[in-house]
Amino acid sequence: MTDLSKVPGVIPYVDNHDGPRRLLTVEIPHLGHTVRAYAPIASIDGRQYIVSWGSVSFEIPADRNVHVSVHLQTNSGREHTITPFASLVLSPHPAPIRLVAQFAPGQRPEGTLVPVG
């Protein structure tokens, strides 16, 4: 098995975990205007990572549930602006997984993380 923490471009899992790990790739597509208005932030088990638009890969535990979320941070808006977000709890599984974040910022803040393939 590959040591995912040594693969270029993969963000290592930094919390305490001695069990098997797998690869998670999250696609965060921008919707035209979102590039200027928002900055994407991905979270793995509550640890936030400021990431870029497009594809980002993480090493995650394979033998337990893992909380994955993506939200689009903005500095524009009013005092109580709710920014778009999507959240999912992945069940234990050994295989790599790819998710795509889907948002409709003008319609509602809740988005979805959808498995691809």
Extended strand count = 9
User: What composes the largest sheet?
Assistant: 5 strands, mixed
Order of helices and strands: EEHEEEEEEE
Straight-line N-to-C gap? 22 Å
Describe the structure in brief.
The protein is mainly β and 117 residues long. Helix content is 3%, strand content 44%.
Explain what you see.
- This protein is mainly β and 117 residues long.
- Helices cover 3% and strands 44% of the residues.
- It has a 5-stranded mixed sheet, with no helix packed on it. Strands 4-3-6-7 form a 4-stranded antiparallel sheet.
- The protein starts with 9 loop residues before the first strand and ends with a strand.
- The model has no long low-confidence stretch (mean pLDDT 88).
